[in-house]
Amino acid sequence: MPSNVRHSTALPRLNRLALLSPLLFATSAWAQTNIIDDTLIDASTALDSYRVIGPATLTGNGAATLQISAEAGSSVVLSDSQVNAQPNATGLSLIGASAILQRTTVTSDARGLGMNSGASALIIDSTIEGGDQGALINASQATLQGSELRGTKANSAGAQLFGGTLVATQGSVISGGANGVRVRENQGPDGSRLVIDNSLVEGRSGSAILVGGLGTPASASIEVLNGSTLSGGNGVLLEVSGNSSADLRVNDSQLVGDIVAAAGGTANVLLENGATLKGRLKNVASLGLDSGAEWTMVEDSQVGDLTLNDGAVRFGGPGEFFTLSLDNLAGNGTFIMEANFAAGQADHLEITGTATGSHGLLISSSGSDPLNDTSLHVVHAAAGDAQFSLVGGPVDLGAYAYDLVQRGPNDWFLDASTRTLSSGTQTVMALGNVTPTIWYGELATLRSRMGEVRRNPQQSGGWVRTYANRHDISATTGAAYQQQQHGLSIGADTPLAIGDGNWLVGVTAGYSTSDLSLVRGSSATVDSYHAGAYATWLDPDSGYYLDAVARLNRFRHKADVHLSDGRKAKGDYANLGAGVSVEVGRQLALADDWFLEPFAQLSGLVVEGKAYTLDNGMRAESEATRSLLAKAGATVGRTIKAGENHSIQPYLRVAAVHEFVNDNQVKVNSNRFNNDLSGSRGEVGIGVAVAWAEKWQAHADFDYSNGRKIEQPWGVNFGVRYNW
After folding, report:
1. Number of helical H runs and strand E runs in the chain
2. Which pLDDT belongs to residue 371?
3. Residue 400 vs residues 139, 226, 419, 429: alpha-carbon distances, Å
4. For the chain, what is the radius of gyration of the CA atoms?
5. How confident is the model over 446-471, as a mean pLDDT?
6. How would you class 374 by CB atoms within 10 Å of its CB: exposed for 0-12, middle for 13-18, buried for 19 or more?
7. CA–CA dist 461, 724 (Å, integer)
8. Which of 390, 389, 419 is nearest to 402 (CA)?
9. Residue 87 burial (CB < 10 Å; 0-12/13-18/19+)?
10. Which uninterrupted H or E stretch holds 34?
11. pLDDT tens digits for range 24-38
12. Is residue 621 over pLDDT 50?
């Protein structure tokens, strides 16, 4: 045996240690080895129990021992070792001593780790198990890194704190048969501190954390950080007894379970940095919700003081209606609620004291209409100057949206008398209204479609045209929206050898897509595919022309509705449209190669109706859409010769446009709405046609139009024609 190790039965000395700390030690007559100088034990060391006397250090590397106790000023360093305590003994006892454990297992049928009188322990990648408790920490500090503290018996605790500090990090686990952590009476002026950082505290049959319960006051400061989890077998995350108190801070963690304080107990809760809690709060004195944190209620609840700083309270799930009663409300945050006009039900916020700050109510939307028009009481405050408003504006409920009305100084109602068109209704109306502007954007006049075809009227040719335009549709049409269209059309024609020989007949096809921007960020797209035929008569001597076009379109509509509560509703459908256009005009030659070209155009369109349903339950039906549009105007320009077969022809076009149809119908649920594009507007355009060879020419146009219901801020058109 080494000279620095003394073996003794040591019963008197063990009894003295037991008197020093009855919480940590059970008396024993077992023989042990006293360590009075620094000692190393390893796999070759015989199985023994050790008592370390300061300032000695016991170092174990790959060792297997019985229980170890360390007195003030001493230290224990174990790596890759095993401590298996004898019956009723503490596996590792520290009195004012320090310990570092790495990849080590400590096992006891009583207590795995006992700490007292300013002891400290750093436990890394290790496991400590005790039948009654994994660890008892009395006015001491233990830090877990990727380690486990486990109580194995049915009524055990993973850890028990008497004014101690326990920090669990890096995926550590603290688990007990009853409670994960028990916080007992304070030792000294300060209470216990528990920090759970990316770790788990688990009470397998009881509360995850229990504060108090021995008849003497206990207090705790608890932090749950960085994705940590609390789990209570009885559904309770934190339980505070009647004479105790706890401050719980949850940061960036998602918890499910209850926080319960008994009568006379105090619980203060702070959620921050996106933390969430779903569960009951019973007798909670104060609740703070900061920086995106959210509490989800599971029943009617009462909280003392609620302070919001960009946090939210969610009143249960769909179909659940709860009341939240508060003593006082302060800050700025959001209450996520639900309302059902048909059943006369709504979540309710009741403040019995003073309410201050500015708060938003985010009330769930629905695709179904209320069965009756009424008002729902959603907020009452006894006193204070708090302000409440609807997040996202009026609440979408079926075809209409309903606003929040303040009555008196302290009551707020969701009132059906304030209804306006919902986001879904406006999107449905826009999709039913947009096909005429799509069709006319694809059509254009003869000059905008094929350029200056009079240059070679007897030649076959082909052309391609690309275009883009924007339309701003006024709310006076039924629903306001912005439309941006991009498209491509192609065509080919040949002279027709009948009559005077001045006829061209051709076919055309193309594609365009239109993006619609609507209220609250809602949007829609319409893809249009068209094919048709045209015939053009051109008299080079008199300048008269006639142009007729017939087209068939297939429209594919997609709706993406942004509802008042931030959710989306989607729907899509396809339908067919058919239209014709006739344009007549004459080119008059003026002096110095100037020309004047008056023209008139009459166009008609019919698009089939279609019924469809959005995925939030809204039923929509766009009835047949019709349009009859007349246009009359003139083009003035000059042909500038630039050599043989070369010319530049700038021009200016002005026109008056009138839409005659004013009653295109749309149904949303059982409500009928009218789309009305009727009215007049003015149109102006500038362009140029360029010929640079006998067979080639190109043209470009820029258009603007404006009326009471429709404005086209811009339209651009570029085309090329080739004669063969």
Report:
1. 4, 65
2. 66
3. 63, 43, 6, 13
4. 41
5. 79
6. middle
7. 6
8. 419
9. exposed
10. strand 32-35
11. 444 344 578 999 999
12. yes
252: alpha, beta or left? (left if phi > 0; alpha if psi -120 to 50): left
CA pair distance 285, 463, nearest whole angstrom: 78
- Two structure tokens written together for 56: 């000695």
Residue range 636-649, pLDDT digits in tens: 999 898 877 788 98
What SS3 string covers 212-228? CCCCCCCEEEEEEECCC
CB 697 within 8 A of CB 690: yes
Determine the longest span between alpha carbons in the chain, in angstroms.
134
- Taking only the tens place, the pLDDT of each residue in 20-78 is 344 444 434 457 899 999 999 998 877 899 999 989 999 999 999 999 999 999 999 99
Element holding 317 (H helix, E strand): none
Structure tokens at 174: 């603290």
**How confident is residue 457, by pLDDT bands cut at 50, 70 and 90?**
low
Considering only CA atoms, which of 652, 673, 596, 660 is closest in space to residue 627?
A: 660
Sole residue written with tokens 């001597």: 541
Give φ, ψ of 713 to 5 degrees.
-65, -30
The three-state secondary structure class of 452 is: coil
Tell me the CB-side half-sphere exposure of residue 356, using CA atoms within 13 A. Answer: 6
Q: Residue 718: name the closest of 504, 487, 491 by CA.
A: 487
CA atoms within 13 A on the CB side of 17: 27
Distance (Å, rounded) from C-alpha 623 to C-alpha 628?
Answer: 16
H helix intervals, 360-422:
none
**Helix, strand, coil shares, percent, the chain, to 5:** 5, 60, 30
DSSP, collapsed to helix, strand or coil, labels residue 139 as coil
Phi and psi, residue 14, nearest 5°: -65, -40
Answer for the pair 462, 721: CB distance below 8 angstroms, yes or no: yes
Record the tokens describing residue 682, joined without a space.
């003015």
Using CA atoms, how far apart are residues 416 and 166, in angstroms rounded to an integer? 55
